[in-house]
Amino acid sequence: MLKNYFKIAVRSLLKNKTFSFINVFGLSVGLATCLLLMLYIFDEIQYDKHHKDADRIFRVAMETNEKWAGTPAPMADGLKTDFAQIQHVTRVLNFPGITKMLLTNEKNNKQFYETHGYYADSSFFSIFTYDFVMGNPHTALAGPNSLVISEEIAKKLFGEESPIDKVIGVEIPYGKNSYTVKGVFRNTGQRSHIDAHFFLSMKNADVGQWVTNQTSWSTNNIFYTYFKLKPGTTIDALEPNLRGFLARNGGADLKASGDLNKKLFLQPLLDIHLKSAIGFEMSANGSITYLYIFGSIAGFLLLIACINFMNLSTARSEKRAKEVGVRKVMGANKDSLIWQFLGESIMMSLIAVFFSILIILLVLPAFNSFTQKNIILFQNSFLMLWIAGLTLLTGLLAGAYPAYYLSSFMSITVLKG
Q1: What residues are paired with 169 via a beta bridge?
Q2: Which of 311, 338, 312, 313 is nearest to 324 (CA)?
Q3: Phi-psi label, residue 110: left if phi above 0, alpha if psi -120 to 50, beta otherwise
Q4: Average pLDDT over every residue of 139-165
């Protein structure tokens, strides 16, 4: 029976080429637009999900007259000392005024400016998950003037040669120092609000001494402080004690500076990209509100395409009426006719999805350039299942009303004209 439905659907599509083209084209454009918006949404909600135990990772931020992502340098050690629930704590420093660093391999005279370089504590890779190609992530930043670079930077500086334990020059506006490569990580395409290309040890000869001298709890709030909870613990027991923690450790410094209104709050790692819109963010954040808007637009456009399909199918019902009458006279029941017309609709939807994918492949480079992303259509297998589900839903939604409408014709009335 399914084979028979398929033959009838193909014959109907070929017999009415103009109608089929209009319907398929309308569905293709609607699906392509919907899928593009959903690709953007799917990309946005993936931020930081690849980190192991991401639900146990938090960032400490503060609030005075405004909310601020940075904290003072002693914050990390204070948290580790005062709260037994914390397993690991780390700091990341994006030094103000340093937007790029000059990396140099003096042995082969290769040098270039690289952006997105961050200073980090040795515990950084105990909290955040990176795919290391070479080196040990747990000890890579332990030594002074150690460096972890991306695979792309390694190839630029060393070609096919192993960069481990090789020395490179890192020049910032305050001078040039030598760093030893202790690790190389692969760019897997995973999204993170820490958009780093390389990490430098917080123990170094350029800003290291300045970092060591930062003991005040009221000044230089430019360190991003993260911690990871121990397994089996919850944040509920820690968060209410932040006020007392700050007063106990930094009360004297805050009183001396007159900054008595400062308070701390915690941000779950998975909320930072979409739900954090505070000062001194590490990178440009997204917005959960925009995702709701884009999702609504995607659903609305798909609904319009389905309604257009319904209207066209219903409008040509006169041409299918005699077919319905003859089939009913020959013994076809209403259910079989409904499945026949739904099959035609789903087939059109499959064809439309094929053309919508071609449209997306054509416009995706321009879309990536406009949104400053690197979205790949078939990067995630889950997306394939989502496209298949959307195709089936579109076929059923677009064909439901025409199927029930056409199958409801009375055979005697139709055959009499």
Answers
A1: 104, 178
A2: 338
A3: beta
A4: 94
Query: In angstroms, rounded to a whole number, what is the distance separating the alpha carbons of residues 57 and 86?
Result: 10
| Tens of pLDDT, residues 53-111 | 999 999 999 998 889 999 999 999 999 999 999 999 999 998 888 889 999 998 888 99
DSSP strand pairing (167-172 vs 100-105): antiparallel
Q: For residue 119, name the pLDDT band (cuts at 50, 70, 90).
A: very high
Structure-block tokens of residue 222 = 């430019």
**Bridge partner residues of 185 (DSSP):** 132, 150
pTM of the predicted model as reported, rounded to 2 decimal places:
0.83
Question: First vs last Cα of the chain: how many Å apart?
Answer: 29
CA distance 109 to 169: 11
Of 279, 271, 263, 277, give the one whose Cα is nearest residue 62. Answer: 263
Contact 355, 394 (CB under 8 A): no
347 CA to centre of own chain:
32
User: What single-letter amino acid sits at 243?
Assistant: R
Sequence-ordered list of residues with C-beta below 8 angstroms from that of 378, at least 6 positions apart, any chain? 384
b or e along 89-111 (b: 16 or more beta carbons within 10 Å of the residue's beta carbon)? bbbbbbbeebeebebbbeeeeeb
CA distances for 359 relative to 19, 239, 297, 398, angstroms = 21, 49, 19, 21
Using the structure block, give the residue that is written with the tokens 């000392």. Answer: 81
d(CA 30, CA 300): 9
Distance of alpha carbon 47 from the chain centroid: 4
- What distance in Å separates the CA atoms of residue 229 and residue 238, rounded to the nearest whole number? 10
With tokens 């309308």, the residue in question is 26
Which of 29, 33, 34, 38 lies closest to 382 in space, CA to CA?
A: 38
Q: Which tokens belong to 220?
A: 């230089």
C-beta neighbour count of 324 within 10 angstroms: 23
